[in-house]
């Protein structure tokens, strides 16, 4: 009983922190929910671990294909030299294969608002 109350309290605190980020970043909280679509393949935390795709911690502002210990980048991702910002992430999530030909990431987010929310979430950081 006692420990489950603590867990609930912890979850409430985490939610409040995310709420603050949402105020500062527009729709980052909605983006956190939408990021469920990405989580099967991407962690977004400080573990330094990767799934099928690289850990996305710090991805905003980073050059594409540069997570050093991620072993599965496609050839073109390694040489694409894209800096991930609002515009490039939006294009990437709308049509990955048009930004990096032959990329192994096939996930497409067709909804513009959802893309903006996810980008706000990534931008807010871990
Ligand atoms: C089915 C697995 C899968 C899903 C789902 C997926 N990705 Fe990816 N993602 C990948 C893979 C694999 C790569 C590496 C692609 C390459 O090297 O061509 C990648 C690469 C990326 C990169 C470039 C990372 C870098 O270090 O340059 C970003 C940004 C990204 N994904 C964002 C997302 C977001 C946001 C979502 C959710 C909307 C998402 N991905 C969903 C598999 C996935």
Describe the protein's architecture and organization:
With 126 residues, the protein is mainly alpha-helical. It has a single domain (2-124), classed as Orthogonal Bundle (Cytochrome Bc1 Complex, Chain D, domain 2), CATH 1.10.760.10. It has 7 helices and no strands. The chain has helices spanning 2-25, 28-34, 36-39, 75-79, 86-94, 96-99, 112-124. α1 packs across α2 (28-34) and α1 packs across α7. It starts with a helix and ends with a helix. The structure holds heme C. Heme C binds next to α3.
Beta-strand share of residues: under 5%
Major pleated sheet:
none
Give unreliable regions as ranges.
1-26
CATH architecture: Orthogonal Bundle
* Mean pLDDT over all positions: 86
Number of strands: 0
Q: What ions, cofactors and ligands are bound?
A: heme C
What is the helix/strand order?
HHHHHHH
Domain tally: 1
**Any idea what the shape is?**
globular
How many helices does DSSP assign? 7
